[in-house]
Amino acid sequence: MPRPIDPVRRRARRLQIIDAALTAFALHGYAGATTAEICRIAGIGSGTFFHHFPTKDSLLVAILEEGTEETRRFFAAREPGTPARQVILGYVGHAVADLADPRAAGFITVVGGLTSHPDIAAALRADEDTLRAALREVVAEAQHAGEVRTDLPADRLAVWIMLLIDGFAGRTAGGGFEAAAEAPLLVEQVGLLLDGPPAD
User: Does Ribosomal protein appear among the keywords (predicted)?
Assistant: First the structure.
């Protein structure tokens, strides 16, 4: 009789491999981050790797999907009564905190070079759709509460918030830009976007 699968242990192992892959991708790029190198960093055998991820592409997709789930968890964990504007700005800070990881630049560069892979492109679209929907909902709530400008549709504001975060991420990947040091200015800029032009 086969042993029952422990879902907690399985998830922990998957996260261990994902963490090792982030390091390998940052150090060696996609081509150089072989499964053998990922296994070495993770301290596992190749059998364990392929039990969880049949290909390196599937591992990269899993990393992107983990980011999408993290976005869902962020918005789902909102404390009752938290003003919607505070949630928006909190998310911006949350996203930038991830970019402060020294491996982030290398990973962004790797993903940027693989958008022609159908599974990776689909995972990126799903991530974008998830964030856009979550931001649109909370922006609409903030508009209804009078916390942010109402001269633009909620979806358009959501897209612009994403644009600012994406631009910040791209600059981080370009090098010579410290995400942690520049984060407060990004949050400030999003706040100005939410406020709209000053009244005459």
Answer: no
CA 138, CA 135: separation in Å to the nearest integer?
Answer: 5
Domain coordinates in residue numbering, the chain: 1-54, 64-195
| pTM listed for this prediction | 0.89
DSSP character for 10?
H
CA distance 75 to 87: 8
Query: Is-contact 44 16, C-beta < 8 A?
Result: yes
Distance (Å, whole) CA 43 – CA 122? 30
Specify whether the CB–CB gap between 88 and 142 falls below 8 A.
Answer: yes
The CATH architecture assigned to 1-54 reads: Orthogonal Bundle (1.10)
